[in-house]
Design a protein that fits this description.
Length: 280
């Protein structure tokens, strides 16, 4: 370069780095002089975040999940784990420029883990990438684990199946979740119950049976589990009709009284006739 004073300024940054706004003044004053300048670039960094949501209740944000970021699609090279900054909100800050893959590695209690892998890239400094497994911006949803309970109702003495019995499911706090009635086989099934603790309770006994007022606990632990339970009913004791006399016996008694009166009247008339003849 010809002798003189100059300003050195970066006009294009290396890939993955922030363009430097520094200016470096230099002066060339000797023939063959080599002037060295040391310039620094900062790497592009960004954040990745997501909001964990109950699929059935979007306002319910889910704690207890774990999300891991990998540098490869096979998810073998682990980079970091997102931190839960508030209920249901997960964040990883200062992730360097590059392409990454996010995977859910632990699901919230009672929910099904999302096995999919979600690619994303950090390309612009200071940007925040929001990951969704549904419509963008709608959150990262989880499906709840669900099971069923099958309840069979029988006669306590005979084992006979009892239809048309009203049974309800209560949650652990005693609130009614769902009601149903036993079918012709004495069975009622309640499906799509989330994993957790419940009670089953009879709210309407069939004709001729005593209502069972007890509540019985059961637990659904796994997705797709069917818990089988049984209940019995006791028949209402037969109440004999109080004795008020036999109608047939009463009729016979009246007949006998009538005959006695008739015979007495006949005898009385005969005696009077005999008495009249004797007087003559």
């Amino acid at each position: 370069m010809p002798f003189g004073s100059y300003i050195v300024h970066e006009i294009e940054a290396p890939t993955g780095y922030i363009l430097s706004d520094e200016s470096y003044p230099v002066t060339v004053c000797e023939d063959g002089e080599i002037i060295e300048i040391t310039a620094e670039n900062e790497k592009i960094r960004g954040d990745v975040t997501l909001t964990k949501i109950d699929e059935e209740y979007p306002d319910n944000k889910l704690s207890g999940a774990e999300f891991t970021v990998y540098s490869d699609e096979k998810c073998e090279n682990k980079i970091a784990v997102l931190n839960e900054t508030e209920k249901g909100v997960y964040l990883l800050e200062n992730l360097e420029y590059g392409k990454y893959f996010l995977k859910e590695t632990v699901a919230p209690d009672g929910f099904i883990i999302d096995e999919n892998i979600y690619p994303f890239s950090i390309e612009n400094d200071g940007e925040t990438i929001e990951i969704s497994n549904t419509e963008v911006g709608k959150g990262f949803i989880n499906k709840p684990k669900k099971g069923a309970v099958e309840i069979t109702k029988t006669d306590v003495s005979t084992g006979e199946l009892i239809p048309d019995c009203g049974i309800e499911i209560l949650d652990k706090d005693g609130n009614v979740v769902v009601q149903g009635r036993t079918d012709e086989n004495g069975v009622v099934t309640f499906e799509k119950l989330r994993t957790g603790d419940y009670f089953y309770h009879e709210f309407d006994a069939p004709d001729g049976y005593i209502l069972d007022e007890n509540s019985y606990p059961f637990t659904i632990k796994e997705n797709g589990e069917i818990v089988k339970c049984s209940m019995t009913n006791t028949k209402i004791p037969h109440q004999p009709t109080p004795y008020t006399g036999d109608n047939g016996s009463d009729l016979l008694a009246w007949i006998m009284i009538g005959l006695s009166l008739a015979i007495g009247s006949v005898l009385f008339i005969i005696r009077r006739k005999k008495g009249g003849k004797n007087e003559e």
